[in-house]
Automatic annotation (TrEMBL):
Signal peptide segment: 1-27
Protein name, as recorded: Pollen Ole e 1 allergen and extensin family protein
Mitochondrion as UniProt keyword: no
Keyword Signal: yes
Keywords, ordered alphabetically: Signal
Every Amidase domain range: 60-367
Organism: Hibiscus syriacus
Transmembrane parts of this sequence: none
Protein origin, superkingdom: Eukaryota
PANTHER family from the UniProt entry: AMIDASE, OS04G0183300 PROTEIN
Amino acid sequence: MAVHSFERISSLFLFFILSSIFSFGASTRTITNYTFSIGEATVKDIKQSIERNQLTSRQLVEFYLGEISRLNGLLKGVIEVNPDALLQADAADKERKCKLPGSLPDLHGIPILLKDTIATKDKLNTTAGSFALLGSVVPRDAGVVNKLRQAGAIILGKASLSEWADFRSINAPAGFSPRSGQGKNPYVLSATPCGSSSGPAISVAANLVTVSLGTETDGSILCPASFNSVVGLKPTVGLTSRAGVIPVTPRQDTIGPICRTVSDAVYVLDAIAGFDSNDEATRPASYYIPPGGYKRFLNPYGLQGKRLGVVRDPFFKTIGLGLVQTFESHFETLRRLGAIVVDNLQIYNIDVILNVTASGEAAATIAEFKLSLNAYLEDLEVSPVRSLADIITFNLKFPDLVGPGNLLGSRSHKWDWCTGEGSIIKLGNLSKNGLEKLMRDNELDAVVTPRSDASAVYAIGGFPAIIVPAGYDSQGLPFGILFGGLKGSESKLIEIAYAFEQATMIRKPPSFKP
């Protein structure tokens, strides 16, 4: 759960690594008497192959473990592999034999990687990429993990991230943590993978896993999804439980899928959304969930009649002529598919919203961070650290085990709670007079912007957004198109994103350019 606002301040380039020992490209393996391409396969593809006895969950997990062994030394997208992953796969295969075809949940027997802020009560660590939490013992599975287990998903392991969900320093490289090293963008290795959910995005983009789960405070799902040519879905705050997830601020933190396709993201969302007694925010948000879940909104005609507002200023000023032309083409596609595109709209006070200091987002988040992190640490059964102060002491004592920059929380005394509370009120007014007013006055179903640059608009109000691959620049670096809306509008956003995706089919496997 990162405050990606700080990533928006500067785009950091990563360390250059080039390896000639890897053979890149779509991976194909012979399963029984068939040749089945697991690389780029969707959940639906995999389920059909399993039902046709072309594939087992064990073979699927073995394939991904092989790909992680082959590629992770370069990409650093995975921190830990679950030593019990194959046992879980065997259990799924055994259970499938006892059930009627089609009677099991969509994620049954499907491997998933979890960002290393999402607690699992098993042999895996939960550390936010920091050695300070290595060896800590969580009291229970995170709420979303409990739901994933109920859905029959296989917990393949923990994905890497920007350390402490990108909240330790404004100078820390995106995608870096001491435990994992520097995560690499599989399309252009020298470019940023963005963060803080870099590992989940890297891993699904490079076909190291079927689906993944990330977290976002401001841009940490949307930005890595954009830079790694995958789909990122940031749910309404409270639609998915934050219980058992290393926090930044409960006011903005949310948990969502990062996958290769919109349909896969929806399968994951259906599995994890809903009430959790350990997160009170899920109680009101659960009323947003439509009867039967979100899968029925995977409608290729979902753009018909939708009113979409295009906000150009300031987002089109920084993307370059080539990308502007690409988005003009996308807007024509939206119109052709039946959408009503309302162009050149303005979000009131957008420059303030995008400035983490002026908006009050930084002050409010830092004030809440210390309280929420201390509460998480105090709840651990075993931990080398029990407070933010302990973490700061650890970092000073063991500098060789710490990433670059100072933990922001060490300066949290500069923002007292009264300052934070005033900032929260300001953020509420910015949302009310900004996105909410824009959508109400123009009767919009969604707002459309390039890349993930508008993430703060949705972050400060707890609003949902989804990003879909939209193209590749002249260097081969991916970028996405972002659709966002008001609380509880996931159904509309899924229809819009899925229809766009199916009409364009832009995503392609990574190229691993240096």
